[in-house]
Design brief:
Strand order of the largest sheet: 2-3-4-1-5-8-7-6
Oligomer: single chain
Order of helices and strands: HEEEHHHEHHHEEEEHHH
Helix content: 10-25%
Number of strands: 8
Region (N-terminal hotdog fold): 1-91
Region (C-terminal hotdog fold): 108-273
Domain PKS/mFAS DH: 1-273
Structural class: alpha+beta
Mean pLDDT: 69
Protein name: PKS/mFAS DH domain-containing protein
Number of helices: 10
Pfam families: PS-DH
């Protein structure tokens, strides 16, 4: 089970709110994380518990997220409300040791900076709700989209999203679902992409993602998505807003959160593996029939080769 990258942002936002924001402070209505780097994916298993730590340096305005196996923490590892034990405090002094598999088996997963200056949150590059009025592609068949994504290694829903507005600040499941259209627009087959960095992430503390009945995502890739760069990455900007308020005279006030400079990268050497084998060539072709930027040549050539008859002329000598 791959722990979503947006869930790491939820953890940092919760720590930020606990340390920096108070309930009667109405001026700080935004949580801004910058220079976010996802170093290593956090993989969870069903048979082993994982302990996650969040480190926030209040002086440098920096944060990091680590994990270690629960078995390495010892019997006294339960620390609610951010209370740390002595073994963890000593390890925080050496960043290099902590970022690798140390004696306590700590692993660095993500790090970045916190911007506490709420007076300069007007972005010059982020999308506005009026930038994209005429869409070039739309679909109401979500099942075909997720069927196509399953061939690329993404095993999504459908699952009912419970009402956890009182527990989450961002609601990671819903926020992660807002990123799914970005994956559906990518060309190629049987390739998996994961986020590696975000230049800036801004979220409102006054509006909860799960409190909106309808959520809309609008995004823009920086470059043409017809091919990959040498780094095999794509970068984009996107905003998440309440779709019912898109015609508001002041649409920026309705933005729930925004991503600037979100970079996703193809996993080197990764193929969809067992998910690809579970679907026939016809199922994969039907799932991608309504999707843009899908390279159908590979599937069509395979069908022609395996299922279509080909007339072959053979020169035969003529005997008189």
């Amino acid at each position: 089970i791959l722990f979503p990258a947006v869930a790491l942002l939820e953890i940092v936002a919760a720590g930020y709110r606990q340390l920096f924001l108070s309930t009667d402070n109405k001026e700080q209505s935004l949580i801004t994380l910058e220079e976010i780097k996802f170093v290593k994916a956090l993989v969870l298993t069903q048979h082993e518990l994982t302990e996650i730590f969040t480190q926030i340096d209040m002086l440098k305005r920096e944060w990091s997220i680590y994990s270690r196996p629960w078995s390495s923490a010892g019997p006294d590892c339960m620390r609610p409300s951010g209370m740390a034990s002595n073994d963890f405090i000593d390890s925080l002094l050496d960043q290099q040791t902590l970022s690798q598999h140390s004696l306590n088996e700590f692993t660095l997963h993500a790090h970045g900076r916190i911007n506490t200056d709420n007076t300069q949150q007007k972005s010059t590059t982020i999308l506005t709700t009026n930038m994209i009025r005429d869409t070039t592609w739309s679909t109401h068949d979500a099942s075909s989209v997720y069927s196509h994504l399953s061939t690329r290694g993404y095993q999504y829903g459908p699952f009912k999203i419970n009402d956890l507005s009182s527990y989450y600040l961002l609601h990671p499941s819903l926020l992660d679902a807002c990123l799914h259209p970005l994956l559906a627009l990518l060309p190629g087959n049987d390739t998996t992409f994961l986020p590696i960095s975000i230049q800036k992430f801004v979220s409102s503390t006054n509006k909860n993602l799960s409190c909106s009945s309808n959520v809309e995502m609008r995004g823009n890739y920086h470059d043409n998505v017809c091919g990959l760069s040498q780094e095999r990455t794509y970068s984009c900007d996107l905003i998440v807003l309440s779709s019912g308020d898109k015609n508001s005279p002041s649409p920026e006030e309705e933005i729930l959160c925004s991503f600037e400079g979100l970079v996703i990268q193809q996993i080197q050497g990764a193929r969809a593996g067992r998910w690809t084998l579970e679907k026939s060539i016809f199922d994969k072709l039907n799932a991608a029939v309504d999707l843009p930027n899908v390279d159908r040549d590979e599937h069509l050539n395979m069908i022609l080769k395996d299922y279509c008859m080909k007339r072959t002329w053979i020169d035969s000598p003529i005997y008189i």
